[in-house]
Amino acid sequence: MPGARYGHRQIDLTGSLRTFRFATRLRRADFSGYDVLHAHGDDYWMWRRRVPSHVRTLHGSCFDEALTIRGIKEKARMAALGGSEWLASLVADHTVTVAPEAQRWYPWVHQVIPNGVDFDLFAPAGDLHSRREHRPTVLFVGTWHGRKRGSALVADFDRRIRAEVPDARLWLVCDDAPGTLPPGVTAYGRIPNAELADLYQRAWVFVLPSDYEGFGIPYAEAMAAGAAVVATPNEGARFVTDHGRFGRLAALGDIGPAVVDLLSDHAGRDDLSRAAQEWAQRFSLRSVVDQYEALYAATSS
Q1: Is 68 helix (H, G, I), strand (E, B) or coil?
Q2: Which of 252, 176, 164 has its CA nearest to residue 208?
Q3: C-alpha distances out from residue 248 to 141, 222, 243, Å
Q4: How many CB atoms lie within 10 A of CB 59?
Q5: Can you tell me the distance from the alpha carbon of 285 to that of 53, in angstroms, rounded to the nearest whole number?
Q6: Pairing state of beta strands 94-97 and 53-58?
Q7: pLDDT (tens digit per residue) in 131-160
Q8: Which of 13, 12, 44 is closest to 27 using CA atoms?
Q9: How far apart are CA 81 and CA 85, in angstroms?
Q10: Edge-to-edge strand order for the sheet containing 53-58?
Q11: Spatial CA neighbour of 38 closest among 119, 113, 120
Q12: Is residue 182 classed as helix, strand or coil in its secondary structure?
């Protein structure tokens, strides 16, 4: 908002249960000098410690993640965090979700404002072909372990995708990949956003086979960059691709054939990329900022 003053407070914690202890520390902080407090987590103890407007964004639902995460301890932790999200949605003056799937857990939350992507950074200038690699290239952005399932993608690439497309390559933006990888697979680790945008723009297909995403910013980044998206049908992927209209949704065991199909179908892949890039405009950072600024003005007046 023109002339607005933004600020942040650093709250340092060490030791165990930091996720829950942070909320207690947050309650003690003085935010009285601000007109709007916009929280993205851990604000469930903030009643009667309000600024004129307390806005909360729910980035998916920990209840949903509890259904897919492995381990009894982690399931219990996610369920407890889901309870904190439920309480936070009642404490805040106004709550929004980044995708409509979470509304089944919080039916009193009606507004959806998606996460935003910087189109100035991720969208290539000119024709979508201008930056593409000459060889079939697949990009993954996530983690080797856990819900992103990078290890499963690499195994499928080695066993099935390269068998059909021998010159295909797989790029991993992944900082926990092992030191030894199959032929054709390259791990980049953590890289600056400008380098990440370059990889998106050069890749033919982007794949993220997560078992859970509350939104899935990498899907929207890939669509902005013109890379065709393949995803498992998690909550975020269904929303960002409009239930598969602007990306291919496939079960984990069918990811390989879906990738092969897109790598081999040049015209179909180009049509999907163009349509997806236009659809992804609704996730542009400028659009998202405009929606939040309108919300701030409405709730703090």
Answers
A1: helix
A2: 252
A3: 17, 13, 9
A4: 18
A5: 22
A6: parallel
A7: 899 999 999 999 999 999 999 999 999 999
A8: 44
A9: 6
A10: 36-39, 53-58, 94-97, 111-112
A11: 113
A12: coil
- H/E stretch holding 208 reads strand 205-208
Per-residue pLDDT of 192-247, as tens digits, reads: 999 999 999 999 999 999 999 999 999 999 999 999 999 999 999 999 999 999 99
Q: Tally Cβ neighbours within 10 Å of residue 131.
A: 18
Q: Are 117 and 283 in contact (CB under 8 A)?
A: yes
CA-CA distance, 227 to 131, in Å (whole number)? Answer: 11
What pTM does this model have? 0.92
Q: Does residue 49 register a pLDDT over 70?
A: no
Number of C-beta neighbours around residue 159 at 10 A: 11
How far apart, in whole angstroms, are the C-alpha atoms of residue 248 and residue 131?
A: 22
How far apart (Å, rounded) are the C-alpha atoms in residues 87 and 89?
A: 5
Asked whether the beta carbons of 157 and 185 are under 8 A apart, the reply is: yes
Amino acid at 266: H
CA–CA separation, 277 vs 272, rounded Å?
9
Check residue 287 and report its DSSP letter. Answer: H
Extract the runs of DSSP E, i.e. beta strands, from the chain. 36-39, 53-58, 94-97, 111-112, 137-141, 169-173, 185-187, 205-208, 228-231, 248-249
What's the pLDDT band for 125 if we cut at 50, 70, 90?
A: confident
